[in-house]
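Per your request, structure below.
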C-alpha cells in the first residue's frame, strides 16, 4: 500500500511539473532607440501581443524603448550574440555586414514611399531577408521610417551649393558618409542620443532624419532649418537572433513570421499619422521647411553608386528596384 502511495505521489508530482512546463512563459527582449509611443515601438508591442495570443501565452515580448538597452550599434551586437532576442533598428548600420542591405540605403533609390513598399514587400525584400541569415539574424519585417532630409541650425538649404562646409551627423554607415561628402558637406557619424547636445554646442551644424525623429528627439529646438530633399526613404528592419528563432517549433516560427507581417500594416498606419502630426508640430514651433530642387542632389550621387554598387548582385538588385512600378 505504501509502495502504491509513493507511485501515486510520484505520478502527481510528474503531472504537476508537466502542467507547469506547459504553462511556462518564455519572455523575449526587444530593443528600440525611439521613445515610448513611437510607431516602431508600438508595432513591436503589437507583434508581441499577437505572438502571446497565438501561442496561448507561451511567449511574450518585452520592448525596451528609449535606448534603455543601448544605442543601435550596441544592440545590434546584443541581438547577434543572443544577449537579446529581438531588435528594431535602421537598415543602414547593417551595410557593412549584410551586403544586400546597401541597396535600400542608397540615396534616391526609391521614388516614393509607395515605391519602397512595393519593393520591400516583393522579391527584392525577400532577397534581403534571406541575406540577413548569414549575419545570424532572421529579418522578420521591414518598417517605415519615412524620408530622411537634412536639417541644420545655420541656414536654409535650397541647393547643393548651400551644403558646402556644413557638418552633419549621420548614421554609422559608409554610404551616408559618402553621400554627405558628395554634396560638399562633412559627415560625423555618432549615436542618435548625442545629436541634440552636439548641435546645441556646435560640434555639428545639423543632422538628417524624418519628421517624427526631428520632432520626438526635439532636434527642431536647436536646428530650425529643415530642407525637404528626401535623400533616402530607408526602411527599418525588425530582426530576431537566428539561434533563438531556430529553437522555435515550425508552428511557432510560422506564428512569429505572420505576427511580424501583421505588424507591418499596423506600423504603416501609425507612421503615416505620426509623420503628419510631427510635421505640423515642428512647423508650429517655428521650424522653417524648404523644398530644394532635388535634381542637383540626385546628380551628385553618381560617385556614391559607383563606389558602393560594386558587383553583379548589387547591380541587378538596383535594376530590379528601378523596374518596380
Amino acid at each position: 500500500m505504501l509502495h502504491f502511495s509513493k507511485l501515486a505521489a510520484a505520478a502527481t508530482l510528474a503531472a504537476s511539473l508537466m502542467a507547469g512546463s506547459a504553462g511556462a512563459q518564455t519572455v523575449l527582449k526587444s530593443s528600440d532607440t525611439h521613445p515610448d509611443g513611437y510607431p516602431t515601438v508600438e508595432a513591436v508591442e503589437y507583434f508581441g501581443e499577437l505572438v502571446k495570443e497565438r501561442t496561448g501565452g507561451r511567449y511574450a515580448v518585452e520592448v525596451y524603448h528609449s535606448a534603455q538597452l543601448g544605442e543601435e550599434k550596441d544592440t545590434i551586437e546584443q541581438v547577434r550574440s543572443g544577449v537579446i532576442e529581438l531588435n528594431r533598428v535602421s537598415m543602414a548600420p547593417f551595410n557593412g555586414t549584410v551586403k544586400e542591405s546597401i541597396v535600400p540605403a542608397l540615396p534616391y533609390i526609391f521614388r516614393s514611399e509607395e515605391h519602397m513598399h512595393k519593393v520591400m514587400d516583393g522579391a527584392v525584400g525577400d532577397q534581403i531577408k534571406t541575406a540577413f541569415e548569414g549575419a545570424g539574424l532572421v529579418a522578420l519585417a521591414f518598417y517605415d521610417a519615412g524620408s530622411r532630409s537634412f536639417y541644420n541650425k545655420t541656414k536654409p538649404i535650397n541647393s547643393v551649393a548651400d551644403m558646402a562646409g556644413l557638418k552633419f551627423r549621420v548614421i554609422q554607415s559608409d554610404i551616408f558618409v559618402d553621400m554627405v561628402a558628395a554634396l560638399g558637406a562633412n559627415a560625423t557619424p555618432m549615436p542618435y542620443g548625442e545629436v541634440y547636445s552636439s548641435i546645441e554646442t556646435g560640434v555639428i551644424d545639423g543632422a538628417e532624419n524624418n519628421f517624427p525623429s526631428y520632432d520626438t528627439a526635439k532636434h527642431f529646438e536647436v536646428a530650425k532649418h529643415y530642407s525637404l530633399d528626401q535623400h533616402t526613404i530607408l526602411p527599418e528592419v525588425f530582426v530576431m537572433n537566428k539561434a533563438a528563432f531556430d529553437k522555435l517549433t515550425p508552428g511557432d516560427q510560422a506564428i512569429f513570421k505572420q505576427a511580424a507581417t501583421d505588424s507591418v500594416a499596423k506600423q504603416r498606419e501609425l507612421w503615416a499619422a505620426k509623420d503628419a502630426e510631427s510635421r505640423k508640430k515642428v512647423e508650429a514651433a517655428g521650424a522653417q521647411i524648404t523644398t530644394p530642387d532635388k535634381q542637383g542632389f540626385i546628380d551628385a550621387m553618381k560617385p556614391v553608386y559607383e563606389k558602393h554598387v560594386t558587383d553583379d548582385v548589387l547591380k541587378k538588385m538596383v535594376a530590379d528596384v528601378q523596374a518596380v512600378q
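The domain at 148-232+280-323 is CATH 3.40.190.170 (D-Maltodextrin-Binding Protein; domain 2).

Regards,
D.
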